[in-house]
Amino acid sequence: MTRATGADDAVRDDGGKRRGGFPMFSAASEDGGPHFGRFVSAMRDLQDLAVSAAPDPEVFGAAADKAEELAAMLRPYAAEEGRSPANRSIGLPGRGSLLMLPWMLTGLEPGRVTAAGVFRRYHLGGNGAAHGGVLPLLFDDIFGMVTHAQGQPVSRTAYLTVNYRNVTPLEKELTVEATVDSADGRKTYVSGRLWDGGTLLADADALMVRLQPWQP
Ligand SMILES: CCCCC/C=C\C/C=C\C/C=C\C/C=C\CCCC(=O)SCCNC(=O)CCNC(=O)[C@H](O)C(C)(C)COP(=O)(O)OP(=O)(O)OC[C@H]1O[C@@H](n2cnc3c(N)ncnc32)[C@H](O)[C@@H]1OP(=O)(O)O
């Protein structure tokens, strides 16, 4: 495995606020406080129910009232990127972001990152299997992490290819690994594999390109 070099030449001195084209985001302290994890967990339950509930029609009216009330409660606190604990709470599944899959890192070292978790009802594609679109989301995120762990923290995905080998079940603990296969200047070639026990569900490969200091 070739190690990437030269990451520091992408670092822009901007009062420590930016690195390459990216702002410098820090992890959320205490994963957003004592209630944030429970809040995100409840919201994930709601996501599952929003795509699966089939109540009498008036129940949706009552649910909409409560959803609008909750949105009105939080709207005054909407903050710019990098301020919310969502996506920055490394102790929570999916770093506390509803966009991310509710998975947890199980290993992080230069050249290799592993994670485990389940796809839920929210991620249903058809006939009990996960939607094909959520697998690239999983791979893209873990590819970002393995590239970061390799010392290329300001890289973006140039391409990502997924091979679907077997249907991906819901509500079953699965594992994923990402590795750095090679590196060439700004380019980091990565690959990943999604497993159900010993069954390979999908594999993927991608090119991550380190941003120039002026690139967003
Ligand atoms: C964890 C929370 C705690 C707190 C947070 C703290 C820290 C964060 C920690 C971890 C973060 C982890 C993950 C999160 C971060 C990111 C992960 C997500 C990544 C994404 O999800 S990001 C969104 C999707 N992504 C885009 O939005 C990219 C749009 N795009 C572009 O921005 C440009 O397109 C770019 C920059 C990619 C390249 O543009 P460019 O102009 O700089 O590059 P250029 O053309 O010079 O190419 C340079 C060399 O790459 C080759 N090359 C380029 N593209 C190629 C292709 N498609 N196929 C084959 N080769 C290709 C060329 O052939 C050349 O090769 P050569 O040098 O050999 O000639």
TrEMBL record:
Q: Which GO terms describe its biological process?
A: fatty acid metabolic process
Q: How does it sit in the membrane?
A: Peripheral membrane protein
Q: Which InterPro entries match?
A: HotDog_dom_sf, THEM4/THEM5_acyl-CoA_thioest, Thioestr_dom
Provide the alphabetized UniProt keywords.
Apoptosis, Cell membrane, Cell projection, Cytoplasm, Fatty acid metabolism, Hydrolase, Lipid metabolism, Membrane, Transit peptide
Provide the reaction this enzyme catalyses.
tetradecanoyl-CoA + H2O = tetradecanoate + CoA + H(+); (5Z,8Z,11Z,14Z)-eicosatetraenoyl-CoA + H2O = (5Z,8Z,11Z,14Z)-eicosatetraenoate + CoA + H(+); octanoyl-CoA + H2O = octanoate + CoA + H(+); dodecanoyl-CoA + H2O = dodecanoate + CoA + H(+)
Record GO cellular component, one term = membrane
Give the Thioesterase domain ranges. Answer: 127-199
This protein's major location comes to membrane
Q: What is this protein called in UniProt? A: Acyl-coenzyme A thioesterase THEM4
Organismal lineage: Bacteria, Bacillati, Actinomycetota, Actinomycetes, Mycobacteriales
